[in-house]
C-alpha cells in the first residue's frame, strides 16, 4: 500500500494545482493585452494612412507613434500591406453585422431595403470611409493591391450580402426575376447618388440632399425596376 503523502507533498500538489488552474487565466490576460495592443496599432495606422496617405506612411512612423519598437510592430503585422488589410477589415467588419440584421428583421422587402440602405449610407458617409475612398482615388493606381484589398473586403462582400437577399425575394415572388447581382449593384449605386457623391467630390455648399432622402429615392427607384405588380 502506497504511503499517504506527507505535508510537503500535499503542499507541492497544492502549488502545482494552483499553477495549472492559473495558467488559463494568465494566458487569457496575455491574449487580452495582445489584442488591446493590436487594436491600438490599427487605430494609429488608420490615422496615419488617412492623414499622410499610404505611400508616405512607413512602419517606422507607426512604430514611433505606438511608442514601441519595429520588432514589436512586426510581431503583429509583418508588413504595411498586412496592417492596411487589418485597418480595412476593422472598418468593414464593424458594420457587416448591422447590414445582415437589417435584412433579417422582417417587415417586407421595402422595409428591409430601406433599413439596409440607411445602414450602408451612414457607413459610407463616415469620415473614415470618405477618407479611405479619397485615399484610394489618389493612390490606388500606384498601389493596385491596396485597391484590391478594399474591394474584396468591402464593396464585393456588401454586394454579395444584398444579392443573396434579393435572390431570395425573387424566388419568393416579391421581386421580379432577374440577375440578383445586377439588381444589388443598381440599388447600391442609387444609394450613393446623392450625399455620398456630393461629399466625395467636395460639392460647394455641401450635400444637396439628406441621407434619408437618398435612401428613400433609392428604394423607390429600385422597386420601380424590380418590383412586381402584385
Reconstruct the topology from this structure.
Layout: H1 7-52, H2 59-66, H3 70-76, H4 80-104, H5 109-124, H6 127-139, H7 144-153, H8 155-171, H9 180-191, H10 195-200, H11 211-226
Helix pairs in contact: 1-2, 1-4, 1-6, 4-5, 4-7, 4-8, 5-11, 7-8, 8-9, 9-11
Any overview of this molecule?
By secondary structure, the protein is mostly helical. The chain is elongated. Residues 1-25 have low confidence and may be disordered. It is built from 11 helices and no strands. The N and C termini lie far apart (86 Å). The protein has 2 domains: 9-78, Homeodomain-like (Arc Repressor Mutant, subunit A); 80-230, Tetracycline Repressor, domain 2. The longest helix is centred in the N-terminal third of the chain and has 46 residues, at 7-52.
